[in-house]
Write a structure and sequence with these properties.
503 residues; alpha+beta; BirA Bifunctional Protein, domain 2; Rossmann fold; five-stranded mixed sheet; 27% strand; binds adenosine-5'-triphosphate; EC 6.1.1.14; ATP-binding; Glycine--tRNA ligase; bis(5'-nucleosyl)-tetraphosphatase (asymmetrical) activity
């Protein structure tokens, strides 16, 4: 699986999906740029989300709030005091790690060991993996399982209590070594705030410290009454926003999974107090359905309900996706209570209560949030779509089986040869279709090579213009996944493609 992941990362670079930021300066940690294909895919993902939220729901509207906000907002939201990661340094390598991630890696090692033992037992007794796991009589399995469970319980307690000494003690007791130096010489654990800050303007007292927003949600909260009043919205209603967020992540790993500059698609749904858990349940279901509608297979998703809740939440779940490195969070759904709005009332001194015309009374709404990372969604889609196929001819091909609606290029148009008026005919077709879909013209190399290039960027359809086209105005239409070809009239192309690339 790790191998597949490496291939995917290099594929992203080779075909213009994702480049390391500042590549000619050897990159910048956990910051990435999206190339000519990446930006198209990313825009399509955003549109797919936006349409499903704003277009399809009468009671959800959009917003685009600024990245810079009044610094008191981050005091009110709790980010200045509580948006921290527990860090530990290795004294020999001088490398810094997140204490919780070191322990999570240790848990994953136990899981690996257990899986290996179960697989061995399955082989020995001629059972399936599931049967062996169910029986699980192997002493070594039970032993590792017990150690893992004990570690998990201790870890959850330390996190819950915010006990930094305990976190360190776990690392010491488990004899966790530094991945770089291999030594176990650790410092104390200390908290590190994840917000980036900069200075704005200059006043007689000096410049004002402002933060780059670590989530887009607060821009929605401080605008909710502006939107409600000007849009004459009635509770329940939602505000959706897509935008950049910034976090000074210490352990930046796994490509675009954990970045320092990333993009979020968030929707905050404002509801009557007391109804939030029903809405939470509904949104949980709606969001999972949305993910599954992409067609990668239902077994690729699961919920992870949180037992440990953030200070603002009374229910929380993650939608996890099976990445090449295991199930990982792609989206968070949180019942955020009235915490944020109440805090903003307190810190701003302004009343931001909603007047409910039905109750003839005012209250502070409760909020249910759905928050998804564009980049993680991008990674999940790329990893689910990336295939290496062995063909009957003995050749192999790399194909991105992207859902057609998300593919960066919908149609490639190729003249069979670069002469006899075929390029002109191909251009004519593109000129007709380019207002409807993203089309690409390609005349270089053999047709086989051109198909491979389009497969590699996930183009669902290729059209080939040959000599006969000049006579009968028909072209060959090739399907990316089945590689089947059909002869269709040029006049029909628009309808056929439109029909097949819509969601
Ligand atoms: P994690 O536990 O992985 O750090 P989180 O629980 O802090 O994530 P939230 O604050 O709930 O994440 O943010 C909502 C979504 O934003 C996440 O589900 C994820 O898709 C995305 N996200 C958060 N941090 C990052 C990051 N550093 N890089 C890319 N996407 C991110």
């Amino acid at each position: 699986q790790e191998d597949v992941f490496k291939k995917l990362v290099s594929h992203c670079k080779e075909y213009g999906f994702v480049f390391p930021s500042s590549d000619i300066y050897d990159g910048l940690g956990a910051v990435y740029d999206y190339g000519q294909m990446g930006v198209e895919l990313k825009n399509n993902i955003k549109k797919y989300w936006w349409d499903s939220m704003v277009l399809l729901h009468e009671n959800i509207v959009g917003l685009d709030s600024a990245i810079f906000m009044h610094p008191t907002i981050w005091k009110a939201s709790g980010h200045v005091d509580a948006f921290n990661d527990p860090l530990i340094d290795n004294k020999d390598s001088k490398k810094r790690y997140r204490a919780d991630v070191l322990i999570e890696d240790q848990l994953a090692k136990y899981d690996d060991k257990i899986d290996k033992e179960v697989a061995k037992a399955a082989k020995r007794f001629g059972e399936s993996f599931d049967e062996a796991q169910y029986r699980s009589t192997n002493g070594r399995v039970l032993d590792n399982q017990a150690k893992r469970d004990a570690l998990h319980a201790r870890f959850a307690k330390a996190l819950n209590d915010g006990n930094l000494d305990d976190l360190r003690q776990i690392i010491v007791d488990e004899e966790i070594a530094c991945p770089i130096s291999g030594t176990k010489n650790w410092t104390e654990v200390r908290q590190f705030n994840l917000m980036f800050s900069t200075e704005m303007g200059s006043t007689s007292d000096g410049a004002m410290k402002v933060y780059l927003r670590p989530e887009t949600a607060q821009g929605i909260f401080v605008n909710y009454l502006n939107v409600q009043k000007t849009g004459r919205m009635k509770i329940p209603f939602g505000i959706a926003q897509i935008g950049k967020a910034f976090r000074n992540e210490i352990v930046a790993r796994q490509f675009i999974f954990r970045m320092r500059e990333f993009e979020q698609m968030e929707m905050q749904f404002f509801v009557k107090p007391g109804t939030e858990l029903d809405w939470f349940k509904q949104w949980k279901e709606i969001r999972l359905k949305w993910h599954k509608s992409l067609g990668f297979g239902d077994d690729k998703y699961r919920y992870h309900d949180h037992d440990k809740l953030a200070h603002y939440a009374n229910a929380a779940t993650d939608i996890e996706f099976l990445m090449p490195f295991g199930f990982k969070e792609v989206e968070g759904i949180h019942s955020r209570t009235n915490f944020d709005l109440s805090q903003h009332e307190k810190f701003s001194g302004k009343s931001i209560k909603y007047f409910d015309p039905e109750l003839n009374d005012s209250y502070t709404p409760y909020v249910v949030e759905t928050s998804i990372g564009v980049d993680r969604m991008f990674l999940s889609i790329m990893s689910a779509s990336f295939c290496e196929e062995q063909l009957e001819s003995g050749e192999s091909r790399v194909v991105l089986k992207l859902p057609a609606a998300l593919a960066p290029v919908k149609l490639a148009v190729m003249p069979l040869v670069k002469k006899d008026g075929l390029p002109e005919k191909a251009r004519e077709i593109i000129d007709d279709l380019k207002f409807h879909f993203n089309c690409q013209y390609d005349e270089k190399d053999s047709i086989g090579k051109r198909y491979r290039r389009q497969d590699a960027i996930g183009t669902p359809y290729c059209v080939t213009v040959d000599h006969q086209t000049l006579e009968d105005n028909c072209v060959t239409l090739r399907n990316r996944d089945t590689m089947q070809q059909e002869r269709v009239a040029i006049s029909e192309l628009n309808n056929i493609i439109a029909d097949r690339v819509s969601i």
